[in-house]
Design brief:
InterPro entries: Methyltransf_16, SAM-dependent_MTases_sf. This protein is an alpha/beta fold and about 250 residues long. It has seven helices and nine strands; from the N terminus they run αββαβαβαβαβαβαββ.
C-alpha cells in the first residue's frame, strides 16, 4: 500500500503525488508514482459538462489495486491477461496490473483525462520498463469505441473504481461493459457508497443485461477497508451453449 499507511484513506488527496507500493512485482517496478491534478490544469482542456473527477486517486481505486495484488494468482493474472480499466482517471489500478505482470493493459477514459493518464503511464514505465507501459485510449461509454479499444476481442479482465456517481450514464456504461465482455471476462468494480439506491440500480441494470453480480469481501487485503467501500465481481451468466470459463492465462 502507500508507504505511509496514514495516507491510504486520509490525507492523500492533498498531495500532488504519492507512492503506491507493489508488494510482489513481476518486474522491477516496486512503486507506482500517482500524479494528481490538484489544480485541475492538466485535465482542464475540453472538460465535459459532467466531469469524470479523474484528477485524483479515490479510495476505491486504492482498495481495488490492493485486492488485485492479494488475489492476482487466484484471478489467473499473467502476461497473457488482457485487461482494461474503465474511467481510469490517473490509472492506478491498471498500472498496478501492469506491474503485476499483465503485458496488455489499456487505460481508458474521456478525452480530457488522457493528458494526465499519459503523464502517469509515462512516468512509471520508462527505460527498461517502457515495453510494459499500458496503452492509453479514449473510450466514450455507450459508443462503438469499446470495439476499437479492444481490437474487436473481449477482455479477460475489466476493472473500474468509483465510476457510479452519475446515474444518467449507467445505461451507456452497461452497454460498454457488455461490449467488452465474453462469458469468460471477469469484471471487478469498487465504489464508495454515496447513494445506495443509485448504486443498487446500476447493478440491477447490469444484471438485466445478463451479468451475475456478487459482492466480494476484502478479506485478503492488508488493510481493513471501511464498510462503505464496496467490491463487486460480475460475469456473464452462462447459457447452455456457452463453453465453460477458462483461466485468464490460457
Amino acid at each position: 500500500m502507500a508507504d505511509d499507511d496514514s495516507l491510504l484513506l486520509w490525507g492523500r488527496h492533498a498531495l500532488p503525488t504519492f507512492q503506491y507500493t507493489i508488494r510482489n512485482p513481476k518486474h522491477s517496478i516496486s512503486h507506482i508514482t500517482a500524479i494528481q491534478d490538484l489544480s485541475r490544469t492538466i485535465c482542464a482542456a475540453d472538460q465535459p459538462e459532467v466531469a469524470s473527477h479523474g484528477h485524483l486517486v479515490w479510495d476505491a481505486a486504492v482498495a481495488l489495486a490492493d485486492y488485485l495484488q492479494a488475489e492476482a494468482t487466484a484471478l489467473g493474472v499473467s502476461p497473457a491477461t488482457r485487461a482494461l480499466e474503465l474511467g481510469a482517471g490517473i490509472g492506478l489500478v491498471g498500472m498496478a496490473l501492469a506491474a503485476l505482470g499483465c503485458k496488455e493493459v489499456t487505460l481508458s477514459d474521456q478525452r480530457y483525462c488522457l493528458p494526465l493518464l499519459n503523464m502517469n503511464a509515462t512516468t512509471n514505465f520508462t527505460g527498461a520498463n517502457e515495453a510494459l507501459r499500458p496503452v492509453v485510449r479514449e473510450l466514450q461509454w455507450g459508443t462503438d469505441d469499446a470495439t476499437t479499444a479492444t481490437n474487436g476481442r473481449p477482455m479477460d479482465l475489466v476493472v473500474a473504481s468509483d465510476v457510479l456517481y452519475n446515474p444518467s450514464v449507467f445505461p451507456k456504461l452497461v452497454r460498454t461493459i457488455a461490449a467488452l465482455a465474453s462469458s469468460e471476462t471477469v469484471l471487478l468494480m469498487t465504489h464508495e457508497i454515496r447513494n445506495p439506491d443509485n448504486e443498487a440500480d446500476f447493478f440491477a441494470q447490469l444484471a438485466a443485461a445478463g451479468f451475475e453480480c456478487t459482492r466480494v469481501p476484502f478479506v485478503s487485503t492488508q488493510v481493513d477497508y471501511p464498510d462503505d467501500i464496496v467490491l463487486m465481481r460480475a460475469q456473464r451468466r452462462l447459457r447452455t451453449d456457452d463453453r465453460a470459463p477458462t483461466p485468464m492465462n490460457t
